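Mods, move this if it's the wrong board.
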Amino acid sequence: MTQVNQVLASLATGAVTVHDLTAPLSKDTPTLVLPEPFSNLIDFSLDEVSAYNEPGPFWKHHNIHTGEHIGTHIDAPVHWISGREGKDVSQIDPQRLVGPAVVLDFSAEAAADPDYLISVEDLKSWQKTHGEFPANAWLLFRTGWDQYGEDRAAFLNLDENGSHTPGFTAECAKYIAEELDVSGVGVETVGIDAGNAALLDPPFPMHYFLLGNDKYGITSLKNLDKLPAFGAMIVVAPLPIVGGTGAPTRVLALM
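Not the wrong board. Structure tokens:
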């Protein structure tokens, strides 16, 4: 029996289970809000074309309207100025979209401080306790933020001082991008950077360093609490939009 057949047999018996890490996509999906003078993407919406009626008597179908970076989505290198000569979402190597999932739990820190920034020291301490990150891994950061996924105000956590959601220090972003042999990072928040990451140097350092080093980011994940620190396999399945800077993405974990 081949290794692939072993996985298929385990799926059939339930020995391997599949967890959906994707947030449902609808008009109510919380989306990033950029301050003026910057432009924002449109929210997701459906436009009915037919519904078992005269325009289409035997079928129902819609046009969809959405920005690339809405809901659970992937950021491709060309999304950021540092990756402008890099890959669009259709050019990402499929081998990089399947790999080990490593779940790092910082939910206690985020509960105590919604502006918590994960540091290099945090990651090195985590590895001393749990072990090294495997090659081609996706680092998935649990902050508990998915609990707010159906409450736009709580999810974005905006006030007169900006958006208060957890993220990473600039040094940590550089460390992940330049020193770790990983494919990408996944978060539960609306973006891969902290809510107030515009104030860091460089601004939005996860975008700057990660995408500038041919690594990828996925956002608005759910159900990370169902996964172990090690032992799950992730499947990241974006729409392969030619020229796309990102795309809505289905993210699955096999465990």
